[in-house]
Amino acid sequence: MSTVQKTFKIGGDLEVNRLGYGAMRLTGKGIWGEPVDAEEAKRVLKRAVALGVNFFDTADSYGPDVSERLIGEALSPYAKGVVVATKAGLTRQGPDQWLPVGRPEYLTQQVEMSLRRLKTDTIDLWQLHRIDAKVPVEESLGEIAKLQKAGKIRHIGLSEVKPKEIEQARKVVEIVSVQNMYNVGDRQHEDVLEYCEKEGLAFIPWFPVAAGKLAQPGGKLDELAKKHGATVSQISLAWLLHRSPVMLPIPGTSSVAHLEENLKAAEISLSDDELKEIETAAK
What we know:
This protein has ten helices and eleven strands. The protein has 283 residues and is of the alpha/beta class. The strands form three sheets. A seven-stranded parallel β-sheet has the order 3-4-5-8-9-10-11, with helices on one face. Helix 7 packs across helix 8 (232-243). The longest helix has 15 residues, at 104-118.
């Protein structure tokens, strides 16, 4: 049976439970506007803390502004040990529309707005949501480095990057985390995960639950879910926790019941043989 490390220290000093919470779904349809039930959204956040979640991931573009604001309203003043990560660098033109803007003055403005909405003096982990092809990453992060020096940001991360881009960014600032799309059925960023393992960086997989063929009834995940008295989603998350000690999955939900179900994934132990079966089925 594989032993699974329960916590990870982001940047070497922010120790979090590895199964976190992604706050993208706390908004309206298309990650746009207010949620259907704002009070339920706040209940989800408070319940997450009560259940031991101490790593929350959001972004200024979720809503936009809505997800950060709800976190500030529900969780500030923050309980000891709670780490909130946010991102900037994607702008919103409407539901499901996202355009990168990495101009230094824009990112500076967004950091100040995030601090206000999150009701905090320091952002624990600030991530560049996307590298803007029109702006050299050195320019984007040069300004962020100044904000870090001023104490407004503790640690800096990146999102949707390859090892070459991480190396480029590390010449300007210390990078402690990478957030890329990754799940048992989509492993295009295996090279990035390996880089993060080698360098001791947190790897935060977004869209962590497997979809498509792998998740269908009668498939390998379904079979293992029945064996463990679990759901396919729980097995997907358990696989991520087993896959690498630097992995910090952040499943999101707007319902307390679904949150509680997701968090039970941390209690599932998969054997080496089961892990191999999942790997084989995913090929």
